[in-house]
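User: Let's play a game. I give you a shape written as C-alpha cells, and you guess the letters that built it. Ready? Here's round one.
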C-alpha cells in the first residue's frame, strides 16, 4: 500500500494544487490514468470544501491498495456538509459534493467527536 498525508493549513487554498501534484505522484504507478484524473478532481473538491467552509486546519489522507484508492479529508468543524443541486445563479459554486457523488464508486461523511471526515473511494477498475 502507498499513502499520502498532508496537513492543510486554515484557509490555505494554495494547498489545492499542491495536493493534486502529490496525489498525481502517488498514483503514477497505479496504471489507471482515467481514474487518476478523476481522483485529482474529487480530491480538489473535498480539499477545497474543507478549506472554504471551515475555519480550521484539515488533514488529508490518501491510500492506494489492491482494491483501489481511498481519499479522506478530516476537518474539525461539526457541521455536516450538504449535498445540494446548485442553481444557475451560483455559477460554478456548490457542485463539489455532486461531483463526488456522481464520479466516486463510494463516498460518505463520518462524524467524529470533534469534526468530520469526508471520504471517497475509486476502485482499481477502468474509468
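Assistant: Ready! My guess for every position:
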Amino acid at each position: 500500500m502507498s499513502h499520502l498525508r498532508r496537513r492543510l493549513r486554515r484557509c490555505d487554498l494554495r494547498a489545492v494544487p499542491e495536493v493534486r501534484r502529490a496525489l498525481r505522484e502517488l498514483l503514477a504507478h497505479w496504471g489507471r490514468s482515467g481514474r487518476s484524473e478523476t481522483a485529482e478532481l474529487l480530491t480538489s473538491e473535498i480539499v477545497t470544501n474543507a478549506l472554504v467552509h471551515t475555519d480550521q486546519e484539515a488533514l488529508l489522507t490518501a491510500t492506494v491498495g489492491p482494491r483501489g484508492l481511498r481519499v479522506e479529508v478530516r476537518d474539525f468543524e461539526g457541521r455536516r456538509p450538504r449535498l445540494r443541486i446548485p442553481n444557475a445563479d451560483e455559477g460554478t459554486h456548490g457542485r463539489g459534493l455532486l461531483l463526488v457523488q456522481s464520479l466516486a464508486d463510494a463516498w460518505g461523511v463520518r462524524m467524529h467527536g470533534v469534526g468530520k471526515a469526508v471520504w471517497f473511494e475509486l476502485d482499481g477498475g477502468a474509468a
